[in-house]
Amino acid sequence: MDNKELKSLARIYAFQFLYHLQLNHFSESREKLQEDVNKGSNSELIEGLLNEFETALLESDEQKETLTKLGPKEKSFAKKLILGVIKETSSLEKEIEKCSTNWNIEKMNKVDLTLLLIACFEIQHIEYTPNKVVINEAINIAKKFGTNKSSSFINGVLNKLFELNNNKQ
Length: 169
Hints:
Elements: H1 3-21, H2 27-38, H3 44-58, H4 61-69, H5 72-99, H6 110-125, H7 131-145, H8 150-164
Helix pairs in contact: 1-5, 1-6, 5-6, 6-7, 6-8, 7-8
């Protein structure tokens, strides 16, 4: 598996973790994690939640194969995305709302919103990944996990975001 494919798997890992974190079951953990990340604390909570998440993934044969392919470098990248999205959620949501005409964050499909948060964070904060790569990755993940309209919606929002942040190739 090449570096590009491994990075794609890392994005999927980050997406799945952040998506699951939105579920009501994790609301208390989500709030505590938000507090810890905002304080700059790299607490045991994130490690515990990631371990719990990985244990759940290992129960699925399809996900088990994906998880075992991720090395420390890819997990580190996924964790950077996860922590970045958690820390910057409020500002990322504002950017997404600016770029998604007639859509309210609260009414967005959670899959779409999660992918937009990750891509928006990566476009704005991870300089070594070209915007077009980030957009393409988000579209591909949307095709796998979203509705039949997710990929075109995400493409439109991220293209507007790209226009606003066109400082990267």
